[in-house]
Write a structure and sequence with these properties.
By secondary structure, the chain is mainly beta. The protein contains no helices and 7 strands. A 4-stranded antiparallel beta sheet has the order 1-2-7-6, with no helix packed on it.
C-alpha cells in the first residue's frame, strides 16, 4: 500500500499513487541518497459517544513505499500534486553525462 503506476516520458518519470482517505498534511515525500520515499499516517475514525462498536474495520495505519531513482533522474527537482486521493509525482530526467574527449600532447 499504496498501489502505484509508474510512467516514463521523454523528459521525466511519473508516479501516480492512489491514497484515499488522507489529506496532504498526512503525507510525506522525501529523497535521501537516491531513494524517493512516500509515507503517510491515517489516523483512526472518531467514534460516536454513547454507541457500542459492533464491527471495527476502519483503523489507524501507516504506510511507506520507496523507489530507487538511479543516476538518470533528478532527485533535487521533484514536484508533486495531491487531489481527490490521487498523488502524482513528477521526477525529471537528467542529461546523461557526455564522455569527455581531449587530446594528449606527445612529448
Amino acid at each position: 500500500y499504496p498501489k502505484v503506476n509508474v510512467y516514463e516520458y521523454d523528459d521525466k518519470v511519473g508516479i501516480v499513487a492512489e491514497i484515499p482517505g488522507l489529506d496532504k498534511k498526512q503525507l510525506n515525500i522525501e529523497v535521501e541518497e537516491g531513494i524517493l520515499t512516500i509515507s503517510g499516517d491515517k489516523h483512526g475514525i472518531h467514534e460516536e459517544e454513547g454507541a457500542n462498536v459492533l464491527r471495527r474495520e476502519l483503523k489507524a495505519s501507516s504506510f511507506k513505499r520507496s523507489f530507487e531513482l538511479g543516476e538518470l533522474l533528478d532527485g533535487d527537482n521533484i514536484s508533486a500534486n495531491f487531489k481527490d486521493g490521487v498523488l502524482s509525482i513528477s521526477v525529471p530526467k537528467t542529461e546523461p553525462e557526455k564522455p569527455k574527449r581531449h587530446t594528449i600532447k606527445i612529448a
